[in-house]
Amino acid sequence: MTILSIGRTSYDITCPVDEYPVEGTKYLLSEKIEAGGGTAANVAYLLARWGETSYFAGVVGSDDYGTKIRKELEQATVKTDLMENSYEIGTPLSVILVNKKMGTRTRFDVVGATQPQLKKYEYNFNADVIFTDGKEYSATINALNKFPKAISIIDAGRVDSNLLELCKYMKYIVCSKGFAEAVSGVKIDFNNSSSLVQVYKKLKDRYPNNNIIVTLEEMGAMYSFNGEIKIMPGIKTKVVDPSCSGDIFHGAFVYCLANNFDMEKTITYSNIAAGLSVGKMGGRTSTPSLREVINYYNQKFHIVEEPKEEVKPVIKTDVDELPDIPDASKFVIPSNTLEEQPAFMVGGASIPTIEPNQNGNV
């Protein structure tokens, strides 16, 4: 499968600390982990590592950080033909403090008030799958028009007008708990299953022709399967650094759809990948190998699967002990049968056409 990931990227510097710094004090840090970041770029990275033909379309600054991001992606065999350099605004930078005792992170994003958008929409390949973080509206719309048969997935992690509009045209909406609560107007209470049902049904009311998955952080993910709303719990593991786990969930999700997995197996793989990642320090560097995920899946379900050949990871990611995976069949929210939905159509609406002008701008 050929997969196109569209969106933003950044350069991440992760600093493990023993405790959160006290204001006005000076600390000597003995360790830092540097790697590229950004949801769409991280998804492209995982897909290339897992053996897919992966393209990334995004903008970096014409600086050292941008050069490092491009090099790292290319080393993972991500195709960077569609990356563009900005000579006006530098590459976004994120400094992340990870509390080693608590397994929590504090993130400082150094980003300009405005970010440059992609200007070129030219493709010399056919995309089978399109993933977007929703931050490149025009480029995403253009790709949807260019590849109307492609499987389309959006990361809905925030609420803004462009992202809400893009959701209408995507086959799969993978949204955060915060997005789900904001759009539905219902606060999720894990002690009250009816709140989960209300949230999901209100999302389906707004996007009736889309497949919706709600990530629930450490609680797993909510989705519909065979007419029922279900929760697939996340795997239980010690959290070392939660950075990038959501991006890794998205990357595994895209991989599974590209390989025709059903929704139950797709969510299971995605939860495993995200769960394994939080047990390691760093963001992108915590990406598990496909073999790790498959070995975990095989061990817990007593299934024999062999992964296809993948790009060797830069950093060793061996896992000595694997946490238990819950049985998804036991986590069905009661009394929640959905009304039968029509076969998928792209949002039930016509995708607008957007073309760059002669100057390359929208």
Key traits:
UDP-N-acetylmuramoyl-L-alanine:D-glutamate ligase; 4-stranded mixed sheet; 20% strand; globular
Q: Going across the major beta sheet, what is the strand order?
A: 4-1-9-10-11-12-13-14
* Helix count, DSSP H or I runs of 4 or more residues: 9
Task: Indicate the structural class.
Answer: alpha/beta
The name CATH uses for the topology is UDP-N-acetylmuramoyl-L-alanine:D-glutamate ligase
The best one-word shape is: globular
Question: How many domains comprise the coordinates?
Answer: 1
CATH C-level class is Alpha Beta
- Radius of gyration, CA atoms, in whole angstroms: 20 Å
Percentage beta strand: 15-25%
Low-confidence stretches: 313-348, 357-362
Q: State the helicity in percent bands.
A: 25-40%
Q: What's the CATH superfamily, by name?
A: Ribokinase
Please give the number of β-strands. 14
SSE string: EEEHEEHEEEEHEHEHHEEEHHH
CATH architecture term = 3-Layer(aba) Sandwich
Query: Major β-sheet, in short?
Result: 8 strands, mixed
Distance between the termini: 29 Å
- Mean pLDDT score, rounded? 86
